[in-house]
């Protein structure tokens, strides 16, 4: 009567807060998700949540099943890992690089959980390949690269992790702060603060400014997000960052966040060597990365 898929669905509904976003997370249509939940309620003879509430409001029966899901699903996954070890004594390494200055916010909790699950897998984030991580991946010096800029390479697969919106951060007193979104022309007289990377790797250029043939008055670089936020808050420039990187500063009313045009969305990928895909520990890392990112980041969507 009650299946693991039902428990996963209820957790997705709770975490996403709506049927539409929950359906995206578990890769179902909204219609299929609604049918699954209605079928489960008919089997159990009780309602599990209140329709048309946001966030979703669960009944006592729904809350009881959520409690069960929180207990059972982690145990089920741990049993799967244990059986894998018994069958093959999994060993390996996971050396990765990050083409994303703000990724540590969700990546470090992911790595911590993965290490707990797979203590026999050697995990490292070496710094020596930061100049060309995808090339190092192709030479088998790395096993995985977190990137938003997939480049077709033999033997490399790009696994989508999540989607995010690129937003413009401006000072609270900035003239643009009263707007909900900006046009490319709005940045013509601005100082644009960016990470020290090539412009063709930044969506604010490739998807927003360059198609409109607009260039900012000046470009300034900063190594760290917190430095960029200090510059923006003090009125010395504007910056475009992933929405999750701005969450803390927006919640503290430190800066204002604006959409670029009608909204620019990008996808973050895990670039993985094909020979490692299908190994239980790599599959588990990718699944853990997705789950952790949705837990700790605001505003991201399934890829």
Structural commentary:
- With 303 residues, the chain is an alpha/beta fold.
- It folds into three domains: 4-83, Orthogonal Bundle (Arc Repressor Mutant, subunit A); 87-162 and 268-296, D-Maltodextrin-Binding Protein, domain 2 (3-Layer(aba) Sandwich), CATH 3.40.190; 163-266, D-Maltodextrin-Binding Protein, domain 2 (3-Layer(aba) Sandwich), CATH 3.40.190.10.
- Helix content is 42%, strand content 22%.
- It is built from ten helices and eleven strands.
- The strands form two sheets. Strands 3, 4, 5, 6, 7, 8, 9, 10 and 11 form a nine-stranded mixed sheet that branches.
- The two termini are 31 Å apart.
- Pfam families: HTH_1 (PF00126), LysR_substrate (PF03466).
Roughly what percent helix? 40-55%
Average per-residue pLDDT, rounded, comes to: 90
Q: What is the overall silhouette? A: globular
Q: Tell me the domain tally.
A: 3
What's a concise summary of this model?
This is HTH-type transcriptional regulator MetR. By secondary structure, the chain is of the alpha/beta class.
Secondary structure elements and pairings:
Blueprint: H1 4-16, H2 19-25, H3 30-44, E1 49-50, E2 57-58, H4 60-88, E3 92-98, H5 104-117, E4 121-124, H6 133-138, E5 144-147, E6 156-170, E7 181-182, E8 191-194, H7 203-209, E9 218-221, H8 225-233, E10 238-242, H9 243-251, E11 256-273, H10 280-296
Parallel strand pairs: 3-4, 3-5, 7-11, 8-9, 8-10
Antiparallel strand pairs: 1-2, 5-11, 6-10, 6-11
């Amino acid at each position: 009567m009650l299946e693991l898929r039902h428990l996963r669905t209820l957790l997705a509904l709770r975490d996403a807060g709506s049927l539409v976003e929950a359906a995206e997370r578990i890769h179902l249509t909204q219609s299929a998700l609604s049918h699954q939940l209605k079928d489960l309620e008919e089997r159990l003879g009780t309602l599990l949540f209140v329709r048309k509430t946001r966030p979703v409001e669960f009944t006592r029966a729904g809350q009881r099943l959520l409690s069960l899901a929180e207990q059972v699903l982690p145990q089920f996954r741990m049993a799967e890992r244990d059986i894998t070890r018994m069958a093959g004594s999994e060993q390996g390494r996971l050396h990765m690089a990050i083409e994303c200055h703000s990724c540590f916010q969700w990546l470090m909790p992911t790595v911590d959980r993965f290490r707990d699950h797979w203590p026999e897998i050697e995990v490292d984030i070496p710094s020596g390949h930061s100049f060309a991580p995808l090339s190092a991946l192709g030479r088998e010096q790395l096993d995985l690269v977190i990137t938003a800029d997939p480049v077709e390479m033999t033997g490399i697969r790009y696994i989508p992790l999540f989607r995010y919106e690129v937003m413009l951060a401006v000072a609270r007193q900035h003239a643009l702060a009263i707007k909900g979104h900006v046009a490319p022309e709005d940045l013509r007289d601005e100082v644009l603060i960016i990470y020290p990377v090539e412009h063709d790797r930044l969506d604010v250029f490739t998807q927003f400014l360059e198609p409109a043939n607009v260039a900012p008055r000046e470009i300034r670089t900063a190594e760290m997000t917190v430095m960029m936020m200090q510059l923006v808050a003090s009125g010395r420039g504007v910056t475009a960052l992933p929405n999750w990187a701005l969450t803390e500063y927006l919640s503290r009313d430190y800066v204002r966040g604006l959409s670029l045009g009608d909204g620019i969305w990008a996808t973050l990928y895990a670039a993985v060597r094909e020979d490692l895909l299908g190994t239980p520990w790599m599959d588990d890392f990718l699944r853990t990365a997705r789950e952790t990112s949705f837990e700790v980041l605001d505003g991201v969507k399934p890829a």
